[in-house]
Amino acid sequence: MTAHMGPIPLPDGGTLTADDRARIQAEHAVSAAVRFRQQWGQRCLSLSGPPERLAAAKKLAEELIRKNGTEGGRITESNNGGNQSKEVQALRQQLGRIEGQMQVFNTQMQWVSSTLATATNAATTANQMATQAAAVAAQASALSKQAMEIVITDKKRKKATREQLQSESESDSASSPSKPQREGDEAQGEASGQEAKEQEKGDAEAAAVEKMVEPVVREVKLEEEKKEAAKESEDEEAGEPSEPTILPPNMQENVANAAGPIELVLHDCGEVVRGAFLCQAVLGAVLSDEKSLKELWSLRGAAGTKPCCLCQNVVGHMSREDVASHEWLVHYSCTNRTRFAKHTSASFQAMRDRLALVAAAGSKKELNALGQCFGLQYNDLGVLWHPTLKDQVCPVSQTMYDWMHVLVASGGVAQYEVNEFAKAVQQLGIPLSTLDQFSRTVILPWGRKNIPRDFFQERINPENDSHVRAFATEVMVALPILALFIETVLEPNSLLPEHCTSLKLMAEIIDILTKMDGAVHLATQLRDAVDKHGILFDKLYPGCVKPKAHWKFHIPEQIQSFGVNMSCFSPERKHRAIKAIASHVFNDAISGSVCLRIGYDTIQHFAENDNCCRAMHLEGPVREVEDGAKMLNFWSNEVSSVSLAKKIKTPVGVVAKGDLVLALDERMALLSDKHGSLVKEWSKVDAGLVEAFFYDHPDLRGENLRQKLEQTVMDWKTKTTRMEFNQESTYMDEVDLKKKYESRPELLAAILENAHRFFCPVKKVIAPNSMPSAFVTPEGDAVIPEPNVWEKQAPKLGAFDRPIRLALPCVGIDGCGEAFSKLGVPYIGAHVMDIEDRYRDHLCNHLPKGSFLLLGDAGDVVNLDLADLRRPIEMLCSGPPCPPWAGNGCRGGLAGDPRAQVFVGVMRQMLALISANELNAVVLENVRGILHVQEGQTQSFMSQLLSFLQEHVSDFNWGVCVLQASDYSLGQSRCRVFLRGLRATIGDLPDPLPPFGKKHLKEFLATNLPPVDTKALTKTMQQNLRDAENDIKEMLKNKEVGLEDILVFPLDRASGKTYQRRYSTNICPTLTCTNRYLFVASMDLAKPPEKRKFWRFLHPSERMVLQGFSKDTLAGKSDSLRVEASGNAYPVPLLMAVLHPILQKLKGAKFSAGGNVDDERVTTLLNKFEAYMESCANHTSNVKGPKNPKGPKKRPAAGPKGPLKAMKMKVKKGSANTMKVKKGNAKAMKGKKGHEKAVRSMKAAKTAQKLAYRFMSSSSS
């Protein structure tokens, strides 16, 4: 085992010779070295070896150092050449003034050339400035030559001094016969030269002068730096011990013992899943302070000419009077946000590319001037110019100013506000001690600590235009205290009205920002407060306006744009942990050590804290109340347990016992004090009604109170709404109600409000203003054509003597029922199931009377008890989830995707009903991929099913057909596979109806929809639309499309990506629940967008018509729901073509209820089927190979990105899946290679979490 001791400071200096180090190594097996430590500012001793011998080795090393003496050690300063001559200092000052003048002239010339090029006097002004700049440049050139001569002379003098020291050292060593003494003297000579070079290197002012002179001086310095680096490497090779990485003891043990695949231990899970997990992300926003943004984006910074990287025309580095009269440029103190010319991604990239071209040309002067104009510092190693990163990053769209640093941190706007306001109060004759006394009377919530007792007396800065000396959290507490002081002291006496308004606006801004993500919904209010505060702040405290005052104008729009409110409070709190580690690490392994320790602590926090990801939870000691559920039975029977704590964590902060919580309704708050949660529940009904009821029945308590309240509200609702129900009691038609009560608007409003609130939904009419802005026409509602009359497409079937009783698992929006209605066949949904609950209103209105509907958890096909089927059932029609076999799904099949179990569950229903001699016909629909042979299989999944059915279910005739939607009068390319079955006693299985014919896409598109509003699109979509327009122009040029054609393409996909943008001509691609951004484009690109026939998204109603449904299907629901429903639905004409011949056979057949589904025959068939399915899944796994603990097998992806990882999950009925991945085997090593290994290992480690899976039907696949 090797231990390390040191660094041990040596105040008097000293050194160890090579013989000294060899002696220590021989006697104690310990490596020792003395080296100058930059962190300590002096020479230090370091030892490395067996722990039990370090003390003795240290003692011997100190004796040898004292023996050598300080004269034999290395000197810390060079008395020769340490100071610059007076001539250099004077010259440096002159050069600084000249450089400032040159920068001013260069900036003015840039403004003239860029903004006043068209003015008549631009040429005269530019010539004058050029003459002045040439004179200044000539003066600077002469001074530079003088500086070069002085510096070269100084260099020669230093070199002569070093040679003299070296010659003296050699003469001393020649006179001494001792070898150790000779080596010590050599070391002393080396040390003298070394320290002189270190002093030279540390002189920053001399380096600044040398940077301005000729390349000869830079070459001399470069040569000396190389020699210095060689000296340091020789010293390290002489025996410098490597310092170990600092890790906690328990982590050292884990790193030493870790081996094998990555495995993460998960808690509260019953099943274990191992494997590798791949996470992909894109850069959304960079939240940081000004310093980090400057380094990341290569900016010139707040003190530069361009202090804001988001605005083109905001300048600084000069007085506001210099640009006050300019028509385009504005100073950063400007409070009119309409004058800010915002950068776009294109404009910023143009600046970046321009700098790269100038840098390639080699003109450093032009590069510096142009960079100052742009506010950028060219860095070929920066992310903006990185060959692979430059197209992935854009400061304009990815920068988020941190409101903590901008407002409340050191130098923030709020700090200036508090300081100047306190001084204004002091000028009224109110001492600062009064403010401190007032602050001590304020009781703050538990989560907020009060400011120090003498905060205002000690922290207020008396200097002009200065900010308070305080932490960010202290400023956030001081603001509401001062706002309360304003309301109680200043405003009643009409003192400092403008100062008070300004500070209250700042308090309002901070109050909105501290609402976490709630600030997103208050972005407009925040923007108004920022604008008003900016005007007052600039008027009252003009000397306190800094670039941060401008940055705060961007904060509201950034919060609204990114949809999240973030700050640096949490990252700043981690500084203490990082500094605690860094203060004890002095070698190159600091990056690895910090990453490992912080990563380890984070994983431990997630593993040990169950509440870390919960938005609301109890904190501190939590006590469970015995019989607490029984005590609350009068309120709800669903209460399972009651826990108590003194604190609760909420999304807006910590609420503790004793805190006051503001209620929105005063009356309801008073009632809540008396009647508790019962009021909160019934307050949704009507506040006035509940209040009147409680005052009329003060004697009621407990269950009697609840029953009486329920009866009173029910009577009131019944009296108001029941008479307006239709015959089926399903909905009220808003149009009919408006006609009926046109003369009684108050009663109409009450009926609509009460019916919507208590009983059933009112069938709404979509108003133009309720539709998305992209789909509203100037004239009113969109006119969606419906070119097909499906009742005329298929031959008439005639009258049926009975309704067909259907089982509809995975019903979706009931495409099967739609096909039955178009064919004119009566039916009843005997057993309708779907796990999707959002279509309930549509299904209740659409399904015939007498149908039995199970939705949500009750509609889970996988967990259905067959004994619960509502029988008899004559026909089963279903479309189980398709992702296990779909091209844009995971294509995991039966073994790799748990959603395939839904298909198996539907098959179980079908086999049970067939074995019970009840079912007469079956139709199952899915994608064409179900016919493909997947990896590890010898047959497709459909072939496996068909083989089993033909062998074990011979009572039926079975067949498979493939139909294309475009052949059946739909303008959509959608291929579907149908598994059909008919009882053999009824007859042979008939073929589907022949195609209905083809229709052009334009027959399905509305012509009165406006073009898309490009400003409402995301930046990526705007770019994709421009790229698509260029592609279409190229296609027109190559005559790949004609002027009458229509193209449809996904706007959320780009060329060259994994999922590429593909164009469909005169036909719509397959509608799915994911391609919601399908864009329709006509070829009249010569016209502006607003004049083009089609330049918009595909309307949700058009999607419905393209699937064969009515355009009013799910009318009134959200667009996203309609898009998802249309993508998952059956194409109605395909189902009509399949069902028509089968229904023709069933028309003359007899039907009766079958036997028990629990008898031996049914059980035997189901057992055979389950065993067959299991063998198919196992066969697939065996062919693929043994289970890979690092992850599943890869499959080819659809693009150049390479294979995508598909995670296999073992499905267990009734339980959640779990995964665990072993903690990463991360060990920090010295240098960059070790750091990269540590980062990769930490990324691979996963935190403890539970993974639950819920089966989805075709309606939400």
TrEMBL record:
Keywords: Coiled coil, Methyltransferase, S-adenosyl-L-methionine, Transferase
PROSITE patterns (alphabetical): SAM_MT_C5
Catalytic residues as annotated in Swiss-Prot or TrEMBL: C882
Region (Disordered): 154-249, 1179-1239
InterPro entries, per database record: C5_MeTfrase, SAM-dependent_MTases_sf
Chain segments annotated as coiled-coil in the UniProt record: 1018-1045
Biased amino acid composition, Basic and acidic residues: 195-204, 211-232
Biased composition (Basic residues): 1220-1235
Composition-biased stretches (Low complexity): 1197-1206
UniProt similarity note: Belongs to the class I-like SAM-binding methyltransferase superfamily. C5-methyltransferase family.
Name recorded for this polypeptide: DNA (cytosine-5-)-methyltransferase
